[in-house]
Structure formats: structure tokens, C-alpha cells
Amino acid sequence: MLSERLLNELNLQLKYEMESANYYLAMAAYCDSLDLPGFANFFLVQGEEERFHAMKFYNFINDLGGKVTIYGFDNPRNDFSSLEDVFQSALKHEQFVTKRIHTILDLANEEKHYPTISFLQWFVDEQVEEEASMSQLLSKVKRLGEDNPGIYMLDEELAKRTFTPPATE
Ligand code: FEO
Predict the structure, then answer these.
(1) 48 lies in a domain?
(2) What pLDDT digit, counting tens, does each position of 27-68 carry?
(3) 94 lines ligand 1 (CB under 6 A)
(4) By alpha-carbon position, which residue is closest to atom 1 of ligand 1?
(5) Which residues are annotated as a binding site?
(6) Looking at the domain assignment, is residue 169 inside a domain?
(7) Domain range spanning residue 146?
(8) 107 lies in a domain?
(9) How confident is the model at residue 168, as a pLDDT?
(10) Nearest atom within ligand 1 for CA of residue 53
């Protein structure tokens, strides 16, 4: 049985995951405006991952017999000053999401809600990867600097990223 408090937190997280997809779509648009389609692709794929995360929450809430609530959200940030600014912002956002996952996990532990504890483990691991990937790209972009031809090599590398839904079972 899901408590009202835990159900609210799970529904809020569904919202944050959808909102993340929106953030990354805006970042993709900024990269496209710089004629860096590989960087744009990286964020488009990131957005697909976020929608996948959101649907995991949607299905989990349903499977537990809870009522899904869909929330709206504020406009994402659309103006960035540089690639470094984009990745700094993406990393900060992932750190926020990590804190959110840990907060829900703390509540699930407090309530001894074992299905939620087990469900969230996947997200705990996923957040380690998400933060690492944003942090590594931030370092690369900082090291290269915006006008370095190496940015175009990195752009080609990022153009290869594709979305493959991870096996859930
Ligand atoms: Fe779903 Fe990037 O956290």
C-alpha cells in the first residue's frame, strides 16, 4: 500500500523527469543554433532517456495501484552563453535529480516500502552515470575552449550517440 506522501513524491518525480526532457530539448536547440548537430544529438538522446525514466515512474505507480497525476512545468532555460554554460547547467540539474531520488529513497526506507526501495535502486545507479557523463563533457569542453577545432571532433563523436532502452527485467 502506497502512502499519500510517497505517492506524491513518485508523481512529483514523474514530473521532474518529464521536465528534464524539456530542459535537454532546449539545450539541443541551443547547440543546433551553434551549428553543432552532434552536441544537439547528445541532448536529444538525453531527452529520450528522460522520457524513458518518466515512464518508469508512470508504470511503477500504476503497477502499485496508485493514481498517476500529470503536472505542468515552467519554461525551460533557452538562452545559454556557451557550451560550458550548457554542460554546467546540465550537471547542476542532474545533481538536483540525484538529490530528489535520494529524498524519495529516504522516505521509502522510513516507511519500509520495499517495492519502492527496490525500484529506486536502478535510479541511484543511473544517476551516478548521468552525473559522470555531464561532468566529463563539461571538463572536455572547458579544456578545449569554445573556438578549438577539437570541438568539431567532439561534435562528430557525440553525433554517434543513440538511445537504446535499457532492459528493465
Ligand atoms: Fe532522469 Fe537525468 O535524470
Answers:
(1) yes
(2) 999 999 999 999 999 999 999 999 999 999 999 999 999 999
(3) yes
(4) 50
(5) 17, 50, 53, 94, 127
(6) no
(7) 4-159
(8) yes
(9) 52
(10) 1
Quick check: CB of 155 below 6 Å from ligand 1? no
Residue 132: how many CB atoms within 10 A of its CB? 12
In a domain, 55, yes or no: yes
- Say if ligand 1 is within 6 A of residue 31 CB: no
pLDDT at 146: 87
Cβ of 53 less than 6 Å from ligand 1:
yes
Question: pLDDT (tens digit, 9 = 90+) per residue, 92-143?
Answer: 999 999 999 999 999 999 999 999 999 999 999 999 999 999 999 999 999 9
Domains contained in the chain, number: 1
CA 26 → CA 29, 46, 106, 117, distances in Å?
5, 11, 32, 32
For residue 146, the domain's CATH number is: 1.20.1260.10
DSSP secondary structure letters along 118-145: HHHHHHHHHHHHHHHHHHHHHHHHHHH-
pLDDT interval class at 1 (50, 70, 90): confident
Instruction: Over range 150-165, report the average pLDDT.
Output: 95
Torsion angle of C-alpha atoms 158, 91, 93, 75, degrees rounded to 10: -50
